[in-house]
Amino acid sequence: MKEKLLALKEEAFALIENASDKKGLQDVKVKYLGKKGPITEVLRGMGKLSKDERPVIGALANEIRQAIELVIEQKQTKLQEELIQAQLESETIDVTLPGKSIKTGNAHPLTSIIEEIEDLFIGLGFSIAEGPEVEQDYYNFEALNLPKDHPARDMQDSFYITNEILLRTHTSPVQVRTMKKHQGKGPVKIICPGKVYRRDTDDATHSHQFMQIEGLYVDKKVRLSDLKGILTVFAKKMFGEDRDIRLRPSFFPFTEPSVEMDISCFKCGGHGCSVCKHTGWIEILGSGMVHPNVLEMAGFDSTVYSGFAFGMGPERIAMLKYGIDDIRHFYTDDVRFLEQFKRA
Amino acid sequence: MLVSYNWLKEYVDLTGVTPEDLENKITNAGIEVEHLSFVGEGITKVVVGYVESKKPHPEADKLNLCQVSLGDEVVQIVCGAPNVDAGQYVPVAKVGARLPGGVKIKRAKLRGEVSNGMICSLSELGVDPKFVPKEFADGIYVFKDEVVVGEDALPYLNLNDYILELDILPNSAHCLNMIGVAHEVAAILDREVKYPNVDLQEEAASVLSKLDVKITSGAEKVVPYYGARIITDIKIAPSPAWMQNRLIAAGIRPINNIVDISNYVMIEYGQPLHTFDYDTFNSDQVDVRLANKEEKITTLDGVERTLLPSDIVITNTQKAVAIAGVMGGSDTEVTSNTKTILLESALFDARSIRRTATRLNLRTDASSRYEKGLDYNRVTAASNRAASLIAEIAGGNVLSGFAECGQRVIEPEIINMPWKVINDKLGTTLTSEEIRDILVRLGFDAKIENEWMHVLVPTRRPDVSIPEDLVEEVGRIYGYDHLPATLPEGTTSKAELTPYQKLRRKLRRYFEGKGLYETVTYSLTTNEKAKQLTIDESTLNDAVKLKMPMSEEHETLRMSLVPGLIDVAEYHINRQMPNLAIYEIGKVFKAQGSQDQLPNEAEHISGLITGHVHDKSWNRAPETVDFFYVKGVLEGLFDLMGVSNSISYRPAKRPDLHPGRTATIHLNDECVGYIGQLHPNVQNDHDLNETYVFEISLAHLRDQDQSEITYHSLPRFPSITRDIALVVDQSVFADHIKQSIQEAGGKLLSDVTIFDVYEGEHIEEGKKSIAFSITYLDPERTLTDEEVSRAHDRVLASVKEKFDAVLRS
Ligand SMILES: [Zn+2]
Questions:
Q1: A115 is annotated as contributing to ligand binding
Q2: Is the dihedral of CA B535, B541, B542, B545 positive or negative?
């Protein structure tokens, strides 16, 4: 009997080993361990055995039974693992194929430049002020110390709608409107971005419509050195920490003194190159101390208050920064142009 | 203003100051030097030659064989100039010489005769032909002054000069003359100004025997002073070489000695002078008056001009002989026969001259100086300088005194101010002495008295009139490089974007995330495009037009952004880029109220999508834009703004849009925009494929922005969803059924979505089936089947009643 049991064991182990799937394994289990299985049969026939033999054979039968169960279990785990392995293999993809593209657009480069400058000055305590693009002659010129016959009006030939209404030639009228709202009380600290218009024939460097961004700070005891300080902060943040700035005297009717700001060339670091026309300096903006006439006309006492103002062209900044050669690109809106500023 | 470096040396010592130094110093002190150029650029080996003999070329009529001495040798030069002659001193480009434009002179054979160099004309030496004196216009240049044969010819021709081109802005008109530039340079270098030495010998006879001047009929206000001299017995001739050379350097063509002297003195003093032929002036009376309406005069350039009563004219009491300060008349022009001249030296109002010159489109060297303001106290000095030069060069006799009217001496202005203001405004710590020293260098007479400073401003500086002007004068000479960089000491303030500015940025990022590129197009467009595709169709007559447009392309302010986007799309399709998704935020304009009221400006957001919204890929078919894609983008936008529940779409028929694929967008009951496909005709006109556009008035939405967040706790009880398919007439709008379901469902209804629309087989002709998924929820407890059924029955009854909707089995 003992031999028979051991033979059964060997037989079952072989079948388990050969089982290739869950079902085959189940069949083995039913066949050898089921109620009609050979081991049960052996146990049933134990009555014929001697009293001494009975516990020995019984123990052996149980032992064999447990061994078969264990091997089935192990085989089951192994089969499961093989199954998952096969599934994973069949599901394997070429991860180097391109992803499903999700199209994204991006902001216009001028918007990016303006938002960058806005954020920079918001950090310095300036608010963003906006105003109409079609303006009264008064706000665009007269309140800025440019009376009707002023020769400087030559410098900005304008698009008039009527004798008194025109497309603004700069965003300075927003400064005037904001100062008037303050009714003579400072501080006024604003940045004015927006579209402006001048009678220019469109070519590579001129556009009848362009952007401007201006700043104004009016308070008690504002000095030209403060303008230099603020513009230094601006230049370093906008064009790099190692930029130097230079102020040159200039003329604008609405500021006195008037200065132009140059930055040391970001391309060559000041040694001279084609970007800076071999001077080492790049002209970036016009600025100055607000003319007392402008302060007075806007309702501020010019003996108590002083201020500075500055203005620059986002197109020019973008052209310098990215080496764009034609201002018309900004208004043609070729996506092959626009998409290059995704990370701007 | 063209400033000759050599000429400037007459008035200020430039020892040790190179032209390049001067350029930088002038620019840094406030007047931009736009160009610095060497006049003899590119010229080498041009020397003075002496034509020893001349004989005709045996083989060519127009050529001569000249034996020319170059000092150390005599060479043969073949010369074709008609004015070449033996005994002349001439500029010669030797063999191996270089001339402007890269010309290299080589030994040559001309029709068999050797030519060792070239005798030069002025234009061959780089002088702009329009400045070459008439006597040398058609031939070689001939030296008139004493020259040394064999020496470098450039200094004799003033071609060894440097020209600084100054950009003169309205506040630097005092540098529109050499003496003014000398003052500026002297202040920068801290050196003296040397004025020209004027030694005028007048005749015993008084000018008054020949001339009287009056200013009449309202001209008194615009003619502060008019003075005239009479100079007799002059001989008209070309002026001397030194004067011709300086005029050429200043960009003025030498004409004859009299005209040249008046131009020369104008460049020197800034005071325009005018000379009349006294004999053709034909009167002993000058009457300066305002022009009569429609009065005519033929000016020196031969053009007949029609005048207005705002113009000032010089008359001989009978007729106008000059437009004051702008241009003389041809009748009284100085000619080669002129014997006696009337030399005018006068002051005219800047604005009046500007108006006249602008209207006549006649900008002259004189008018541009009058316009920008003169030193009123030079009117006599300039006349004296010119008179003495005429006596010296043209041999005239100057009658004594002036025939004059008006006031010729003007007192300088005084600015009184606390000197500390200079430091307060600049942020500097200068002492009163330092401030005074700078002002004195500038030629200002400055006195310090304790806290106060009294500054006498010379009349050559009419641009300086208030304390801030002195702040600038001190600042620019002190040097802005020396200013400290400080930060404002005043109030600190915090700042942030306004809610609207935040919203605008949010919308930009939203559209960009949805695949649209931002564009910026022109506000000015054609009159036709300005009125196309507007949201509000009732305002087409309110387009805002320019008074004087530069072109039809840009004559009217846009009332919609879409036509600009269509142009952008057309640009792309013409370049084989049929897939495009763009948006723009910008203003549209319409007239309102009376003419003197500003137009209404409203910010709109607009978009255009055409072609594929997804390109073909290895695992995806391309997706082409349709109405519902664009609508989905807008729904997301309204959701972002929290206004979805107030937005509805109504079918609309509009010009330029597809009548069956267009909806107006309504916020509550107000139309705030539209969405639709471009009309196929419009698409064809622009070569476009199926193209969808939208425009929304942000101005209307900004007040409705509900994007503030109100948090709702998550539902703790399950919801129940029932799907139904309803068969209705094809003309019934899905959204109407949806609204009806929402109303009938009551407060238990939490969501309705449309998940299928079907027509065709199994559905009666003229009908369609729409499937809705309806979700019921009570946030407070679990719903019973009965409750849901009651609500659902109400829904079914409602759609049956309103739309005759049948539940599809
Ligand atoms: Zn550079």
A1: no
A2: positive
Per-residue pLDDT of B555-606, as tens digits, reads: 999 999 999 999 999 999 999 999 999 999 999 999 998 888 999 999 999 9
Q: Number of C-alpha atoms within 13 angstroms, CB side, residue B277?
A: 16
Correct CATH for B500-704 of 3.40.50.720, 3.10.310.40, 3.30.420.40, 3.30.930.10 = 3.30.930.10
Which chain A residues have a beta carbon less than 8 Å from that of B501?
A: 128
Which residue in A has a C-alpha nearest to residue B351's C-alpha?
A: A149
Over residues A206-216, the mean pLDDT reads 96
B616 contacts in chain A (CB < 8 Å)? none
Best CATH choice for the domain B202-406 from the list 3.30.300.30, 3.40.50.10490, 3.50.40.10, 3.10.20.600: 3.50.40.10
ω into residue A187 within 30 of 0, thus cis? yes
> In chain B, which residues have their Cβ closer than 8 Å to the Cβ of A334?
571-572, 575
Q: What is the structure's pLDDT at A209?
A: 97
Give the residue from A110, A145, A161 with the most B CB atoms within 10 Å of its CB, the best one to mutate: A161
State the nearest Cα–Cα gap between B605 and chain A, in angstroms.
14
* B670-678, strands of its sheet edge to edge: B517-518, B580-590, B600-610, B691-697, B670-678, B657-667, B647-651
Q: Is the CATH number 2.40.100.10 carried by domain B720-807?
A: no
CB contact under 8 A, B520 and A331: yes
Q: Nearest-CA distance from B359 to chain A in Å?
A: 13
Residues of chain B with CATH 2.40.50.140: 44-157
Query: pTM for the complete prediction?
Result: 0.83
Task: Count CA atoms closer than 13 A to A77's CA, side-chain side.
Answer: 5
Low-confidence spans in chain B with pLDDT less than 70: 491, 703-707
* Tens-digit pLDDT profile for residues B748-788: 999 999 999 999 888 888 999 999 999 999 888 888 889 89
In chain B, CATH 3.30.56.10 covers 2-39+162-189, 413-478
Question: Tell me, which fold does domain B413-478 have in CATH?
Answer: Phenylalanyl-tRNA Synthetase; Chain B, domain 1 (3.30.56)
> Residues 6 or more apart from B583 whose CB is under 8 A from it?
A105, B511, B516, B517, B518, B519, B605, B606, B607, B608
Is A109-341 a CATH 3.40.50.300 domain? no
Structure confidence at residue B113 (pLDDT): 87
Q: Domain ranges in chain A?
A: 2-90, 109-341
Residue B233 labelled as part of a binding site: no
Task: State the complex-level ipTM.
Answer: 0.88
pLDDT recorded at residue B595: 81
**Residue type at B378 in one-letter notation:** R
pLDDT in tens, A161-189: 998 999 999 999 999 999 999 999 989 99
What residue spans in chain B does CATH classification 3.50.40.10 cover? Answer: 202-406
User: B353: closest CA among B370, B339, B375, B341?
Assistant: B370
Contact list in A for residue B29 (CB cut-off 8 A) is 249
A33 Cα to the center of ligand 1, angstroms? 91
Look at residue A232 in the predicted model and tell me its pLDDT: 94
Percent above pLDDT 90 for chain A:
62
Nearest-neighbour CA in chain B from A145: distance (Å): 13
Mean pLDDT of chain A: 91
Range A202-211 burial, b when 16+ CB lie within 10 A, else e:
beeeebbbbb
Q: Measure B616 CA to ligand 1 centroid, in angstroms.
A: 45
Q: Which helix (H) or strand (E) holds A140?
A: helix A137-140
User: Between chains, do B524 and A159 touch, taking CB under 8 Å as contact?
Assistant: yes
A333:B613 CB<8 A: no
CA of A320 to the centre of ligand 1 (A): 11
